[in-house]
Write a structure and sequence with these properties.
The chain has 328 residues and is mostly helical. The protein has 18 helices and two strands.
Amino acid sequence: MGGIQLHCLMVWYLGYRLLPEPLGAQLGDLGKSLAKGRVSIDNLRAIVAQFNDLEPALAISAENEIAGRAELYRRSRPHRWWDILRLFASTDTELLLRTPELKELFIFHRDGRLREAALNLFHDGLSSSFFVTALVLRGNDWVQEVRIAAAACARRVLPKTAPDIVAAALLVLLDRMWQWRRWGDEAVIIDAALSRPDVASRLAEKLRLARTGPTARLLRRALHQPTLDAHLLALSQTAFAPAVRAVALQAMIEGHASWRVGVEYRWIDKSMGKRVIVPKFETRSIHPLYPRELAILQGAQDRSAAVRKIAAAGAVKYRTTLANLDEI
């Protein structure tokens, strides 16, 4: 048994099971069929339908469990006489060519050639945020050819995918993608999704209504694209989470958005070799620019102390240019 195969099996065998048990059992049945060179279309379609109902984050956290339960790994040639019949069974590659519906499952396959082949079969809009997340995850794949195929697939299918589906996936992806080490030119996948005004509108609405989660951090990262600029005023006034209102208000006061892109070293004393790690940010100007006086006045009347603190800091910083300083 290979190392990748062992790792996939250990994830679920030791009890780290994230998938609903009925789905896990169906994946196991399908895996046994694949090992014999067969596939049940009804079972496959039932599995894909249940994938559509899963939380999008599970496309990342349950990736190994899916591969392990469905036995999606490169199979070695038989070396025992009672396995000789496997020589005549269809390979996973042959099954994928005969049954393109396997593409939704094979994007989790441990064989990079099959992940690439599966991505090349997607042409229509995706059916759920789970599969949008899975597609973008392949943009951080450890195989370069798979990353290239994922970017090409995203250009084909994301413009055809419903905006609500894309926005729901972005709530997961925006918080995780900055940690991905192989994430380079494939970032255009996210940029293209955020550049859609309909997606930006749905994402802003989800952030406005959100009551839990890292909403402020998500808004900061989403602001690297200008399509959310038009929603800053509404977010600063009506978002449920004070942290979201604070981020939107700060962008309006400063006239630019900033988001974290990693970390960098800052010297304290070069002669002694002392330095510290600090967050690294990028910025861009927002458009349209909001009247700073009105933004600060609005923030000064907010019900949250965190938002009023942003307004107070802006009033101090720009006090020499504010015509309504006494009113503030």
